[in-house]
Amino acid sequence: MFNLPTPHIGGPELFVLEFGDIVAYFSPYTALLFAFAVLFTVLVIVSRPERQVDIAFGGDAYYTKEVDPDLLRFQRFMAIACGLATLGAMVTGDVFNFTLFASMIGITNIGIVAAYRNRHVLNAAFQYGIVAMLATVPLFGGAAIILSSTGTLSMWELFGGAVAVPLIAKAFLVLGVMGEGMAPFYIAKAEITRAQGAPFILMVHVSSLLLFLRVMEIVISM
Amino acid sequence: MEIAYPVGLVVVAAAIIIGFTALVREKDDLQRILLVDLAEVLGLVLIALVATDLAEALILPGLVVGISELLAVSEVYIAREGLKEPTGPAFRLEVMESAPGILALILVAHGIILSGFTGGAIAAVGAVFYFMCRGHNEQFELIETVSGYAWAIWIAAFLIFMFLPQYWFFGVMMAGGAILVKVMAKMSLVGTMRRGGPDV
C-alpha cells in the first residue's frame, strides 16, 4: 500500500507506522538521521555537566565556578526534550507535524540557552527567541499554502508527481526552518564566554543540523 | 472562495510587510515582544484563510506554539532585566471593590444559558474576575473534584453517543453541562493567581 515515490533521495521506505492518515516512516536517509539524534539524546541523558575552573592571571591561583544544580537540571530536561522533538521531526510524514516539531525545537533551544544567569547569554537567547517566534509565520504560512494549493499535507501525496507544490510554499518552509534552526549562531555567545553546561549545548547544534537536512529532503522531494 | 483567497493572501502579505517593518524600526525590547506576538497572528491568519475543517483543527496547535514561545521569550526577558514580583497589592481600583458580585453573576448566568465550551469560557471569565477582585480562600480540592466529576460525566456522554445513539439528546445535555463546569472550574483557577496565596 505504501510506496515512497522518490526513492532516489531518501531510498525506499524501511518501516511505516500508521496513525490514522498521518503515516510516519523511515527511509535509509531519515533512519540515519534518527539514529544520529538517538545517539546524542542518549549522550545528553547519561553525561555529567563539566566542572569549570577559572585561572587568575599572573599567578598560580584558580577558582572553580559555582554551578546551580536547579539550572543544570532544567537545562538537561530541555536538552532531552529537544532531542525528542528532533526525533519527531525526523520520522513524521506530515508537513504540518514537521512544522510543529520544528517550532518545538525552537522553544526547547530557547530553554537550553536561557538556563544561564549571564546577561550576555540571556541577551542572545532573547534575540534568538524573537527570531524563532517570527519564523513561525513563514513556517505555518508555508504549510497553509501547501494545504490550500494541493489539498493535502501528507508527504506521501506531496512526494508523488501528481501534485505540484508552489515554489513560494517551499521557500516559506525553508525560511521558517532557517529561523528555528538559527540557534547555533546565537549559542556562540554562550560558548565564547564559556558558560557552563557543556554537554547540553551540543543538542542545539545537533537539532539544527538534522532539521536542515530533513527540510532539504522534504523540499527536494515535493 | 476563488476570489476571497487571493484577496486574503494580498491583505496578509501587506500586513506581514507592515509588521516586519515595524519590528525593524522598533528598538525597545518589550515593545518588540508585543510586535512579534502580533506578527505571529499572521501565521494563524494564513492557516485560517484555507477555510476548511482541517484548517480549523490546525489553528489550535499553531496558537499553542505561539503562546508557549511568547511565554519562553517573556521569561528570558524577565530574567535578563532582573525584574522582581511587586510586593503588596499591585493596584486598587474602585470598580474592583464594587462590581465583582453583579458582573460575575451576569456572566455566569449567561454562560449557563449558552452551555457547552463557549458557555464555560464566558462563565469562567465571570469567575476569574470575581476571584481576581475579591481574593480567594476556598479549598482548591473542591474545585478539582468538581472538575474531575465533570470530566467523567463528559466521557459518559460520549459513551452514550457510541452505544445508545437513540438517547442522543440526553447525551448532548450531559456533555454540554459537564464541559461547562469543567472549563469554568479550570479557568477560574487562573483568577486566583494574582493575589498570590501560599499555594500558587
UniProtKB/TrEMBL annotation, chain A:
The keyword Transmembrane applies. The chain crosses the membrane at residues 22-46, 74-92, 98-116, 128-147, 167-188, 200-220. Coiled coil: none annotated. InterPro entries: NiFe-hyd_3_EhaH_prd (IPR017059). The keyword Membrane applies. Signal peptide: none annotated. Keywords: Membrane, Transmembrane, Transmembrane helix. This is Monovalent cation/H+ antiporter subunit D. It comes from Methanoculleus formosensis.
From TrEMBL, chain B:
The keyword Membrane applies. The keyword RNA-binding does not apply. Keywords: Membrane, Transmembrane, Transmembrane helix. InterPro entries: EhaG-like. Pfam families: EhaG. The chain crosses the membrane at residues 7-24, 30-51, 58-79, 99-130, 142-161, 167-185. This is DUF2105 domain-containing protein. It comes from Methanoculleus formosensis.
